[in-house]
TrEMBL record:
ATP binds at residues 11-18. It comes from Methanoculleus bourgensis (strain ATCC 43281 / DSM 3045 / OCM 15 / MS2) (Methanogenium bourgense). GO terms for molecular function: ATP binding; ATP hydrolysis activity. GO terms for cellular component: cytoplasmic side of plasma membrane; cytosol. Residues 6-211 form the CobQ/CobB/MinD/ParA nucleotide binding domain. GO terms for biological process: cell division; negative regulation of cell division. This is Cell division ATPase. Keywords: ATP-binding, Cell cycle, Cell division, Nucleotide-binding. Pfam families: CbiA (PF01656). The lineage of its organism: Archaea, Methanobacteriati, Methanobacteriota, Stenosarchaea group, Methanomicrobia. SUPFAM superfamilies: P-loop containing nucleoside triphosphate hydrolases. The keyword Cell division applies.
Length: 261
């Protein structure tokens, strides 16, 4: 059965794209058919973070009715499917967010796990993804403004018939983690699924245009992302599942034939 997650936050810059890219890649490393979609159509950057070079057809064209979903799917590491958004303002204007439901319908037939990276705020392009997935996961940082904005998104999600499944506390520091965890659960009334530490390797990987779980698998943030992905995939907590190795031939083939078919 497919699981579809919307990764949201309210406040900008909490780590939605980072979480989407790394949970998607980690699940793909575990051999799970996974698709990540950039629904941040105004400020798209999932394709950039995942190192996609040319993306002539994107979610923009699909939502404008000019292309099929399959034409906007690109292959990432470990067979991860990526649907990027376009970078042009014209493409953003032409895209009709209402078509997202049809895109989801199509993608659910192609994968076991689906993640939607949504824009910050409560604009129409941010609101629709809150209802189309099985559950919303809120990405919160250890600061009060992030928590307040997450609460707004939780209330909004429930008002429009969606479900918030839990919170990922991202960029946590040692001294803040425990108190923040409790404060978040009390304020939002949903569990903190897990914590991802503040980790300079995340930014180093982003600069190299790769998710940290692929570029620096031994880093503390990678361990956290793999732990969350393993739990989502239903692996027992105490055993780390085997990671599929991507060989030279696969990497070369991906570089040469990026488009998913
Ligand atoms: N755990 C972490 N440790 C260190 N840096 C991080 C971590 N998570 C995210 N970052 C950095 O924080 C910045 C914002 O992250 P990201 O782009 O994922 O946020 P976002 O919520 O998607 O932003 P936006 O709202 O603008 O779409 C990036 O520079 C990213 O590399």
């Amino acid at each position: 059965m497919i699981r579809a997650y919307t990764i949201a936050s309210g406040k900008g810059g909490t780590g939605k794209t980072t979480v989407t890219a790394n949970l998607g890649t980690a699940l793909a490393q575990y051999g799970r058919e996974t698709c990540i979609v950039d629904t941040d159509m105004g400020m798209a950057n999932l394709g950039l973070v995942m190192g996609l070079a040319e993306t002539p057809i994107t979610l923009h064209e699909v939502l404008a009715g000019k292309a099929q979903v399959q034409d906007a799917i690109y292959e990432g590491p470990y067979g991860l499917k990526i649907v990027p958004s376009g970078l042009s303002l014209q493409g953003f204007q032409d895209a009709d967010p209402e078509r997202l439901k049809d895109v989801m319908q199509d993608l659910t037939n192609r994968c076991e796990f689906l993640f939607l990276d949504v824009p910050a705020g409560i604009g129409s392009d941010a609101v629709l993804p809150l209802t189309v997935a099985d559950e919303v996961i809120l990405v919160v940082n250890p600061e009060i403004s992030s928590l307040v904005d997450a609460l707004k998104i939780k209330i909004l999600t429930e008002m429009i018939g969606g479900t918030v499944g839990g919170v990922i506390l991202n960029r946590a520091t040692l001294e803040s983690t425990d108190t923040n965890r409790r404060k978040i659960e009390e304020t939002l009334g949903v569990p903190v699924i897990d914590t991802v530490p503040e980790d300079a390797y995340v930014r180093r990987a982003a600069a190299a245009r790769a998710p940290v779980v692929a570029r620096f698998p031994g880093s503390e943030s990678s361990k956290a992302f793999r732990r969350i992905a393993a739990a989502m995939a239903g692996f027992p907590v105490e055993e780390e599942p085997e990671v599929v190795q991507e060989g030279f031939i696969e990497r070369l083939a991906r570089a040469l034939f990026r488009r998913e078919r």
